[in-house]
What does this fold into?
Amino acid sequence: MEAITHLTCSGCGAAIEPKPGQRQLECPYCGVMNSLFEPPSPESLAPELVIPIGVDQKALREFLLQVMIKDDLAPDDILEASHFESEILAFYPCFISKGSFTASWTASFGYDRQEPYTAYETVYEGNRSRQVRVTRYRTVTDWRPASGQAQGNFLVAVYAGSDLPKEVASLIPRISLESMTNYQPGFVTGYDLNPVTINSEEAQSRLKPLILERVKLAVYAHAQGDRQRDWNWNSSIHNQDLKPALIPLAQGVFSYQGQNYQIWSDGVSLSLTQADKLPQDSQRSKNMRNGYAPFALSSLTTVICFFLVEDSFAFWPVLAGLTGSLLFGIIRSRSIVNHSRKVRAASLAQKKLNEGDSNQTEEERQALYKASAKPKRFFMAKTSVDVIVIPLVTLVFLLMVLVGIFYWRLGLWEY
It folds into this structure.
């Protein structure tokens, strides 16, 4: 929106009276031309291109819920105990740069080959030794200079605002621009629009590394041989076109145990994700580590006895104890994770049932009802009896290792 910037002369300070429609006014006293309106600000920059939003609120909610329960250490109650603060689809400003490039490059390409050489080995015969000549092979790289030209097109985007955190703004250059089209107000009606805060010069500065990365990839595509080195190139940019555009981003904010967490994605296909460090169940992590206690103690005992016991070990009992204790830790850890996944999947199904969707069919509701049943816990996944199970299992596998180490004293094997 245009605004009057001068009511007094910038030259002599005399009072001046602007008339409607005037953009400049000559001071009647000193002759200085006074501008009555500010130049267009970055916020008034009209977009020329837009990437339409490709998802709806239902798809966004489903995406957010899936991200919340995805991690293996996500709390089992994360869906029941959390509350969504906001779920937003909005447009953010960016600059789109399109053009072509050519690059002249030089490099050295290495080609490996096997080269024979003569070596000498010491051979012992009785109390005597002698040198024997043998033929061995080594890898030799032949380096050859090379040069050429690379060319290609680029289409890159960079964030043109200042409100987004750096990590979230990094999503914009990764969004596919295939669905980009000419701007029309209907594409953004009903959605929030964030303002442009940089000019074209700053945009060019931010776009330059992205364009140079495209050039680098095109140059490296000419690599030959088994290895390469000494890359150098000079590039030229042609027909570069810079246009302001709008790109959609999706954001969800949920609270869990008094703390807010943000999840971001592109608003095109929800294929990109940037999220805060989400809640994790520290107790589950501890329980999973506890399952490897038998293996850790058995391994430590084996190592210590290897240096302290001079007599030979019985290999199979020791191997059985170590392998069994390791398998116990792996199976128990996976059981805990799998059970938690089933609990979270059941919670997700229950949440969908509670929220209700008028478009759901009876078959879909029955499937959700079936999926919402809480899973039975496999005994390996039970952590409440760790105080008994872990010491007992540790004792069993440790005894197997000790039997193998001290087999000759127990009289179990002849030697």
About this structure: Strands lie at 24-26, 33-35, 49-50, 82-125, 128-159, 181-182, 192-193, 227-256, 259-266, 273-275. The chain has three domains: 1-39, 49-107+151-275, 282-410. Residues 49-107+151-275 form one domain. The first strand starts at residue 24 and ends at 26.
